[in-house]
Amino acid sequence: MKKYQSPDPFTGAREVSGCAHMNDQDDPVTMILRLKDVRKTAHNWKTFQSGSAPGRIVIPSEVNIRDTRQIPFEVDPPMHGSFRALLDPWFKRPLGNEYRAQLGQQVNALVDEVLTKGVIDAVEAFSLCLQSRALTLLLNTDASEADTWIGWGTHVFRSEDDPLDKDKAGLLYDYIDEKINAASADPEGDLYSVLLAAEVEGKKLTHEEIKGIMILTFAGGRDTVINAVTNTISYFAEHPESLTRLRNEPDIIGRAIEELIRYFAPLTQMGRVATQDSTVCEHAIKADSRVSLCWASANRDASVFESPEEVILDRKLNPHVSFGFSHHNCLGATHARQIMRVLVETLIEKVGSIDIVDFEENIEQLGEFERKVGFHRLNVHFHPR
Ligand code: EMZ
């Protein structure tokens, strides 16, 4: 098997029953595996809500390490729509020319740097740096903040020996409290200040609401972006001809990015909590129990995607759900897509080949399933064109 590959562990269960079960801290989850059912359930927010206890729709559940509701992703309509109306324009800024140019400079500098080095760990020395530096643009905050965030490692709630590290989470919460307080004393043009000045449904946001938006911004787009970038590097390492192809056919770069995002599905699943007894693809779901929308499985649904196990760079029909589906689609998707575009364009321009020296996969244990979501370590050597 090639090292970039992320085999689909759900094929059998998806085809036979459409659902699977996993336990998670004694709060079991019915995983929904087919694209059609995932979409239907995502739409049906009245029966499958996001606004239950903070942390409960995340798998593994974060109820024990978090009291602050993340906004807008743990809020249901209609309030959800009011928060999105406030946040969407800010999170679409990555489409602007200046933002793109700045991102281009960051990625260029990073690629130039790794080209002068020998073997580096792409996770720590590339993807984490790229994600953190790019986040300073999304927040419109000082570039030097990236160094602090890089120090937190790849996940703000996970440490090496604890997948739900309360103390580590506390560092992020304190950091955000401090930043909100600083912005309220001395507002600048950053996201904290914009939120402090904003109103939703005629009311100023509370400190707790701003904190919830900021926690999501820090946590939601962190390991996901890092996995997408690292997986992309591993793919091009083993497919140098794809770099050449994209160089010769720049028109397909957009499709190639969607395809990499479909294939790698950096966020495996997201939960919902049933508000009443119901059924999903003939499985009974009890009120107050959890289901998950398994994006990673839905993206390999052979009734929708031809040869789903292959990366087809110019795949035409690609209704993947890596950024979720329906009203809760990913707020950071524009930023993430722009990172991927600038990354691919810079690799095409500067990199001839990448050697994988050694690696350690990041495997999620999901009940009876094991899914590779990325790498803990990917030691690579970049060579210039
Ligand atoms: C939550 C989640 C959001 C969660 C879209 O995903 O990402 C996870 O990595 C975080 O742990 O708190 O932000």
Written account of the structure:
The chain is of the alpha+beta class and 385 residues long. 45% of the residues lie in helices and 17% in strands. It has one domain (11-154, 210-384): Cytochrome P450 (Cytochrome p450), CATH 1.10.630. The protein is built from 14 helices and twelve strands. The strands form four sheets. Strands 1-2-10-7-3 form a five-stranded mixed β-sheet. A three-stranded antiparallel β-sheet has the order 4-12-11. A two-stranded antiparallel sheet has the order 5-6. Helix 5 (122-139) crosses helix 6 (145-151), helix 5 packs across helix 10 and helix 11 packs across helix 14. The radius of gyration is 20 Å and the shape is globular. The structure holds 6-O-methyl-beta-D-galactopyranose. The site of 6-O-methyl-beta-D-galactopyranose has 10 residues, from helix 9.
